[in-house]
Specification:
Elements lengths: L4 H7 L9 H22 L11 H21 L9 H22 L9 H29 L3
Length: about 150
């Protein structure tokens, strides 16, 4: 029996280690945000705008974005598909990454690990999840108006 070229290609499983374009489009922003955080954490000092607590605002913002991207990936590209479990998982993942980031900073000359920074990371992750929950409630209540 002869197998046609089309059948041979159709039957071939994906090569191990090859990341699909879909997976890359979902998880690439997560990895990119984590990489940016890692690079910033590797610097002895990070230039900022210079207003009080600017670094905490940066932490809140970066971890809010990270949480959003994780939810987007878990929701298969649509944050509206993600339920409370995905939002909670995304926040936990972001906070866990924040903890590892603080441990990393303990080994960077000129940097220290900070509970306050981890708290700001957690606030960013939680604010994203809470804001999405509030937006969903507001959206549902708006649909019922006459």
């Amino acid at each position: 029996m002869t197998i046609s070229s089309a059948d041979r290609h159709r039957a071939r499983p994906p090569s191990p280690g090859i990341v699909s374009a879909r997976t890359l489009s979902l998880w690439g922003p997560v990895a990119g945000t984590m990489a940016a955080i890692f690079v910033l954490s590797s610097m002895p000092s990070v230039p900022g705008p210079g207003f009080p607590h600017a670094d905490k605002v940066g932490h809140v913002g970066l971890y809010a974005v990270l949480t959003w991207f994780v939810v987007r990936a878990l929701g298969d590209g649509d944050v509206r598909r993600a339920g409370p479990g995905e939002w909670a998982a995304a926040a936990v993942l972001a906070i866990a990454y924040g903890a590892t980031d603080e441990m990393h900073q303990a080994f960077v000359p000129g940097r220290v690990a900070s509970w306050a920074d981890l708290g700001a990371d957690a606030i960013g992750a939680a604010l994203t999840a809470v804001a999405r929950g509030a937006w969903s409630i507001i959206g549902r209540s708006g649909r019922h108006r006459v």
